[in-house]
Design a protein that fits this description.
Dihydrofolate Reductase, subunit A; eight-stranded mixed beta sheet; two-stranded antiparallel sheet; about 20% helix
Length: about 170
């Protein structure tokens, strides 16, 4: 099972200058709950945007850079190689960035999206979620409050049975 985990604005913005354009503590809590105890796959820039190694997760970093070897990570040079490291009994959680999402949405089984209700200037974007391929199976709205500048909605999309993975 390949699961994409992302937070994106209404215009599919993921980030700008290798940073998140919002601070949503409830999104961080959901991310931790979804990914704890599992492998997380990401591009190099996404890894470098993290505050460090996230506890209780195996970090797999995809990069074209030779000799890139951060402590606590497995480094590979392709999405295929990253996925080959995940046992069949486990879910693979892909956490970004834009290019990795663009490649992996073609083969993913599920998308765990936090849709941020704002239009944000960005340089990294999540690909369009095609309703012919993806079915919204869960939705939970959260209004903005003193901890969350923007309202957001947790969404789960599942690949439609009649939509092939290729």
């Amino acid at each position: 099972m390949i699961v994409l985990v992302a937070a994106a604005s209404e215009n599919n913005a993921l980030g700008k200058d290798n940073d998140l354009p919002w601070h949503l503590p409830d999104d961080f809590k959901r991310f931790k709950k979804l990914t704890a105890g599992n492998s997380i796959i990401m591009g190099r820039k996404t890894f470098e945007s993290l505050p460090g190694i996230l506890p209780n997760r195996r970090h797999i970093v995809i990069t074209r850079q030779k000799n890139y070897n951060p402590d606590g990570c497995i480094v590979v040079d392709s999405l295929e190689e990253a996925l080959s490291l995940i046992p069949a009994s486990e879910e693979a959680f892909i956490i970004g960035g834009g290019e990795i999402f663009r490649l992996s949405i073609l083969i993913a089984d599920r998308i765990e999206m936090t849709r941020v209700h704002a239009h944000i200037e960005a340089d990294a974007f999540f690909p369009e979620i095609d309703p012919e391929i993806w079915q919204l199976t869960f939705e939970e709205y959260h209004p903005n409050d003193e901890k969350h500048l923007h309202a957001f909605t947790f969404q789960t999309f599942s690949r439609r049975q009649d939509a092939s993975s290729n």
